[in-house]
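ok trying again, last paste got cut off:
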Amino acid sequence: MKIWHLLCAATLLIAGNASAEEAQFLKSLQGTWIGGGMVKVRANLMPINVSCSFNSQATSADLSMKGTCSGLVLVRRSIGADIRFKGGKYTGSYVGPSGRKAGLAGRRSGNAINLTIRWAREVNGDLNASLMVQKVGSNGMKLVTIDEDPGSGDRIITSEISLRRK
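nice, full thing came through this time. structure:
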């Protein structure tokens, strides 16, 4: 019986440390961010260079990122993500350039949260894509979406945005 209590205590301690680690990681992504990169509106189209700004808020279990990206002189789109860490997993929602909400689910690996996007309607011929939110050093963040090219079946980068803390 004593061993059982020790195992339970060790499990709680490890889970507590994991939650504290996630809280620290999420809070490190809080702030005002600026930068740019490229976005492909469709897999078969040429990329558009964009300039972006984001504001992110974090708690011990939640991250909310809201921002805008501009390209081609007059094109400006709002994008954002709200994710929550619970039970070792991240879940939430993403609103991309189309303005439609999509579901998110995934896990963190090192300095990156790797999420599966579940679109509400077909995008590039299917309902799924990937989103990576990566912390880069102490003052950088990278957002990358990857989707399947319906023409070739290859997985391609459909957006890559590098941000720095403002």
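cool. The chain has one domain: 2-165. The two ends are 55 Å apart (CA to CA).
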